[in-house]
Specification:
Length: about 325
């Protein structure tokens, strides 16, 4: 039955889904951490942390799934991408560890709580920043010679990658702010609305900058977005981005609680779709295609059976956890 399926394309879709799930799910709790020190008062910060406490570690499951899937199914891509991005990826993982330790230790002390407040904010911000740098370095292209990375140690550090690093920090702050609008009340919610106005405007500005910059990085990108008539097929993406922007600011103006969060998620999903449009059919832009990088079909088929069992379980417990911890949160009693 699997013989007639384009397995590399299926696996590319599964890995892309895992990466997107990580970005939008872990994005808002990283965003809460980025905004953490902009809110004064221990009770307010407790309320912010309680809003993500039940789900933050489960959100990182998708990062493991995406990275593991890339290693198992597209070993050539993994072998090329990792040496190019070792520095920002290791920095990101260390920041995530630092943030996780701060998350747990903050509740264990009173005298040193301010230290872990700073650690939580710095870990969240650094993780987002280095994720953005890794993304920018990946988008701008990875030099390949034969079947190996052919670049230098500092190729990942460029003006474009620094811009995408800042963009992801601001974008995650928007997700965090709109999440807090959904989950909190009173003063924390009021401050989250103000944060969402500022981070929303900056996010849209940075999306525009990166979107206009990206086609000039590679002829393949430019042809995909501006060549005729291919450009007509991708026009729904910027149109929907504009619609999400309108929904975001209308929701903030009218103090809707859910609409700004959904609109912010829409901005991330559409930006991710835009990247996929630019990359296809390459998995390493613009050097290695999906089919060149894929493992033997037997390995892909074997792993697909496991994914068919594992993915529904992950989706089920993720959905269940969000359903259980729906509603508002407070600083003392958690969810209510």
């Amino acid at each position: 039955m699997l013989a007639n399926i384009d397995l590399p394309l299926v696996w590319a879709g599964l890995i892309a889904f895992a990466v997107l799930a990580y970005v939008i799910l872990d994005g808002f709790d990283l965003g809460v951490g980025i905004l953490f020190l902009f809110v004064n008062g221990e009770a307010a910060r407790d309320e912010m942390m309680n809003s993500v406490a039940p789900v933050w570690d489960g959100n990182e499951t998708w990062l493991v799934l995406g990275g593991g899937g890339l290693f198992a199914v597209f070993p050539l891509a993994y072998a090329v991408i990792m040496p190019a991005l070792y520095a920002p990826i290791i920095a990101m993982l260390l920041a995530l560890v630092f943030r996780g330790v701060a998350f747990e230790f903050r509740w264990k002390t009173q005298r040193g709580k301010f230290v872990w407040d700073w650690a939580f904010m710095l870990g969240s911000t650094a993780a987002a920043f280095f994720q953005g740098i890794a993304l920018g370095a990946f988008v701008q292209g990875i030099p390949v010679a034969g079947r190996a990375y052919a670049g230098g140690w500092w190729d990942w550090l460029t003006p474009f990658s620094l811009t995408t690093g800042v963009a992801l920090v601001i974008g995650y702050a928007l997700l965090g702010a709109t999440w807090l609008i959904c989950k909190t009340e009173g003063d924390v919610q009021d401050k989250a609305v103000r944060f969402a106005w500022i981070s929303g405007a900056l996010t849209l500005l940075l999306i525009a900058i990166v979107s206009l910059w990206t086609p000039f990085l590679d002829e393949h990108f430019r042809a995909r977005w501006f060549a005729w008539p291919q450009g007509l097929y991708v026009m729904p993406v910027p149109t929907l981005v504009a619609a999400c922007a309108v929904a975001l600011f209308v929701g903030l103006r009218d103090r809707h609680e859910l609409m700004p969060f959904i609109a912010s998620l829409g901005l991330f999903v559409l930006s991710f779709i835009g990247l996929c449009i630019s990359f296809y059919p390459h998995i390493v832009p613009s050097s290695v295609t999906l089919w060149d990088a894929a493992a033997p079909p037997e390995s892909q088929a074997f792993l697909l059976v496991g994914a068919a069992v594992l993915l529904p379980i992950i989706l089920a417990y993720t959905a269940y956890s969000y359903w259980v911890f729906r509603g508002k949160v407070n600083a003392v009693g958690g969810y209510h």
